[in-house]
Design goal:
By secondary structure, the chain is mainly α. Helices cover 73% and strands 0% of the residues. The longest helix has 15 residues. The protein has eight helices and no strands. It has a domain of 57 residues.
């Protein structure tokens, strides 16, 4: 279900961003440009940096799974609330699915 949500969300480029895979040092610059583009008005630079940093540590370092899940669910609830609400009844359900 999460994969479907990411595909339907539209703003998925932030979740599966190339800079996060290129290394942690590229994240702040990417987020500055991404937020300035205005693609997703609810996202601010701090949220972007935090989400991608947690994503980097989760996928590359295999740690901080809970922190990544919380940030990802916050992102979905703020940026694509209709999809978030159609997939999960609570933040805990979202977190559980990301961690599964």
């Amino acid at each position: 279900m999460l994969i479907a949500a990411m595909g339907m969300a539209g703003p998925a480029p932030m979740i599966v961003s190339t800079p996060a895979h290129a290394g942690y040092n590229n994240i702040p610059g990417f987020c500055k440009d991404y937020v300035a583009s205005g693609v997703e008005p609810p996202v601010n630079q701090g949220e972007c940096v935090s989400l991608l940093t947690q994503q980097f540590h989760y996928y590359v370092d295999d740690k901080n799974a809970n922190a990544f899940a919380v940030h990802a669910c916050d992102y979905y609830s703020e940026v694509v609330p209709d999809i978030y609400n159609s997939l999960w009844d609570s933040k805990q359900e979202c977190i559980d699915e990301i961690l599964s």
